[in-house]
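Q: I'm a student working through a structural biology exercise. My instructor gave each of us a protein and asked us to get a predicted structure, then write a short paragraph describing it. Mine is ABC transporter ATP-binding protein. I'm not confident about reading structure output yet, so if you can add a plain explanation after the tokens, that would really help. Here is the sequence I was given:
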Amino acid sequence: MTFLAIKNISKRYGPVLALDNIDLTVAAGSRTAVVGPSGSGKTTLLRIIAGFDIPDAGQVMLEGETLADGPAVVPAHRRGIGIVSQDGALFPHLSVADNIGFGMERGQADRAKEINALIDMVELDRGMLDRRPHQLSGGQQQRVALARALGRKPGLMLLDEPFSALDTGLRENMRKAVARVLRNAGITTILVTHDQAEALSFADQVAVLRGGKLVQAGTPQTLYLNPCDRETATFLGDAILLPAELGDGFADCALGRIPTDANGRRGRAEIMLRPEQLRFSMINGTASDTICAGNVIDVEFGGAICTVTLTLAKAAGTAPLSIKSSSVGLPDVGSTVHVSVVGKAHVFDTAGR
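A: Happy to help. First, here is the predicted structure for ABC transporter ATP-binding protein. I'll explain a few features afterward.
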């Protein structure tokens, strides 16, 4: 069921076209992540949904109600949309309890009960209710900001890079906690982030913006494994791009003959593999008869996930390949390994190449 519909949204700031004819739908109860490089238009899109900016053209519809139709808009305070920003935007002179209850009526009979329920919902101790924001950690401040937004009982929650100011470990824990809270509350959510891994792990749907255009939208798995073009492929993660000759469902390339998702296409094309699709095994003796032999030129230890970089012995001129590996059984620099591929290579759509 479509909960939010964005139709043909365009926005220009002087000579700059920030958004160009954007179409996107969001299902009820789902989590959508909007990603893209700086200047791609993702924050502008979020602000138009929130009602802070007015589109030049297009529609925004929430549960069938038109919130924007070109310059004719419903004001932000009447949209029933919650928003949590990067810095949380808490009031420094108010206690945690008063921050959470800011949008509630002062004389509301069950106000204290609701505040207690909200701080429980975001998994904070009630003993923090009397503290001021400066007495909280960054992660705790973001949870208070989320509780305040939830207190307005929004139909839609907008998260504007809420984890970017947090340390890496805390950011991951906060992302999981916020996702759990919103899922349990059944609230439809849109996250704007510059962190591709965050988008892929948080969302049910990922939308990629580039140059003000919606390049591709779909499940995280679809975008990661089947990106529409090489720019999207490399933006969403490390990618191995190789020229190949297609035929009979296979690609002949520097790694040998490997299966593809080419759907009957033939001829020259560029294929994509993710580094984790490559495997290596040690070669005993000479590698002269091994089609996919690689010479290890670097080993980067990264704990659980390490990176082995190698050059292909029989593909002079091919860029070095990086393989993700566990830290168990790492080869030595200078050794020769056999390289194999797991799964299918992705072939970009002709229109996206």
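A: Here are two points you could use in your paragraph. The first strand starts at residue 2 and ends at 13. Residues 333 and 343 are 27 Å apart (CA to CA). It's a good idea to check both against the output above yourself.
Q: Great, thank you!
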